[in-house]
Structure prediction request, 316 residues.
Amino acid sequence: MRISLLAVAATALLLTACGSEVAGPGGASSSVNGGNTAPTADSTPSADGETGTSPGNPGALFASATVLEAPGKGPQLCLGGIATSLPPQCGGPLITNWEWAKAPSPEEAAGVRWGSYVVVGNYDAEANTFELTRDPVTPEAYTGPKPSAPEDPSFTTPCPVPDGGWQVVDPAKTTQAAQDAMLEAATRLPGYAGAWLDQSINPADPEKQPEAMNDPVKMIINVRVTHDAAAAEQELRKLWGGMLCVSQGGKPEADLLRIQKEVSTNKTVLTSSANGPEGFVDVEVIYDDGTLQRELDTTYGPGTVRVHSRLQPYPG
Prediction:
């Protein structure tokens, strides 16, 4: 099990899939994860689900997503975040020809009806509406081509295994307090790109013993800097006696957070996440025909911001 960290405070806040939230225009949220880009499903949706998109007439598109109808709002295709309450809350393009009688296995609570479906149809960016061209099916029953998803970031430990294996070097400095202090100091290192915990060496079952996964003596703490990893490790060893891997690469986290904040002001962006260790910002939009990606490549350099469309061309 590996957990990413971002701008860790003295409490060593562990950021998993949710990340921290930065509200964007119209309530769209930005997930800030220091390398964890599985943010989107847990970020807070906009109140009305209205979000712009890149222009163009893309033809038939498809997605695997929640469809939700709240009283007075009509059936919406939830392509941004979903609040995991009961009933859930989300928003997105209005589906103009939705019929629940043709939608398998919906759920209902407090007057809200919803379900998970693969939908195929046409998207009107100007009206922010979606028109089905095929009946919806559940993801379990769907056998056609799968929508692509952003690549999961790698949170493996890049350092070679030391002679004798990974071991604690100073038990007196391998405490929760020492871990917190070291991670806080890491954020002040020149060229700090991010930090993450590699708990794969912990023999505990994360499902049955989640509390045991945070044992400081049974994890490898990873810190990445853009230059002079040896000097950074020497500095961090003053505070931390546990297993430590300091590697070189990525981009300064501060720079990526600035870029993330800037791109999140674009009304087309549903969610965003900054990955300092791997050096990019991920953004999700309803649909991009390539226009937004080209603009961001021109502004920030190719590969700095990666655009992922929730609606994708249907290959069938």
Notes: The first strand starts at residue 2 and ends at 5. The two ends are 37 Å apart (CA to CA). The chain has a mean pLDDT of 84. The chain has two domains: 1-37+150-285, 45-147+310-316.
